[in-house]
Prior knowledge:
By secondary structure, this protein is mainly alpha-helical. It has a domain at about 65-220. It is about 90% helix and about 0% strand. Helix 5 packs antiparallel against helix 6.
Amino acid sequence: xxxxxxxxxIMLHIEKNILFYLLLIFVFITGVAAGGFTINYxxxxxxxxxxxxLYEHSYLLKNQANIDKALIFLNSxxxxxxxxxxxxxxxxxxxxxxxxxxTVGIRGFLLGFTxxxxxxxxxxxxxxxxxxxxxxxxxxxxxxxxxMGIISLQSGIQNFRNRRLYTGKRIRFQRITGYTVKxxxxxxxxxxxxxxxxxxxxxxxxxxxxxxxxxxxxxxxILNRSSVL
Length: 229
């Protein structure tokens, strides 16, 4: 019965906020598309710099006996909590709504750019890398970002509607507290996805993709030095 109620509540929530969902999804997809198109305007030298960085990263993962998983986890948490913080912050006032949308769009841009670079530069192996090491955690990150955007948008619109009404400090505190608690629950999902990114992704990368990235990086370095000479 509880599962049925939860499903019903979710469907009612989506139906009630369908325009918000469409707006946030559109903004995110627009960011992804912009990131994907950006790769077409990068010259070979710029792509080479990224390839060299990936070569160094691959070398460390391949040859380092003990990977600092705590550092990987903290980097993942910091990146996603930073996004959550800005979306939360911009939802505190209706004037922040455009900046919240920009924040969501930037996350889409970064995802689109990353996926496009790997596929464009590394071909089929890059596609497999995206499937195995990037998309799995995105199935958590992307819905969380969209849901946070909706919560932020709802808060901003509510503040706009109530801008002429006087509310005491206690009521404002209760609203901000409830608003913040919703974000904290979503951050927990970020943490769980961060564990996958910390413990599973490096293992997949080291087992399946490290040698390919190393070989590709060596070829790039040879060609780069040859062109300089």
